[in-house]
Amino acid sequence: MSTPQRAQAYGGVIRQIDDLSGAKLHSDEQAVVREAADSLLFTDGLDRDPAAERALVELYALADRMVDAERITRERAGELVRAVESCGPALAA
Fold first, then answer.
1. What are the CB-based long-range contacts (under 8 Å, 24+) for 80-85?
2. What pLDDT, in 10s, does the model give residues 39-68?
3. What residue spans define the domains of the chain?
């Protein structure tokens, strides 16, 4: 279930996608980020939503690939991942 805070976080993700679009974040990669943000925005919990969990795993893999290819810094990748995670319910530690 979306909340105002999660919706605001989603807006932040969209801004980050816009900032990274082009050379750093290709259109297929933008789709991965959007899918993860969309899935998390509308889920009540990853334990009950395998599709949202898969989307998040794909986001983590994308961030790692981009860092490994030196297309983005680890710090920037972490900011993007945290922004997407903020779209969802609190993650268990």
1. 80/13, 80/16, 80/20, 80/33, 83/9, 83/12, 83/13, 83/16, 83/37, 84/13, 84/33, 84/36, 84/37, 84/40, 84/56, 84/59, 85/40, 85/56
2. 999 998 888 999 999 999 999 999 999 999
3. 4-85
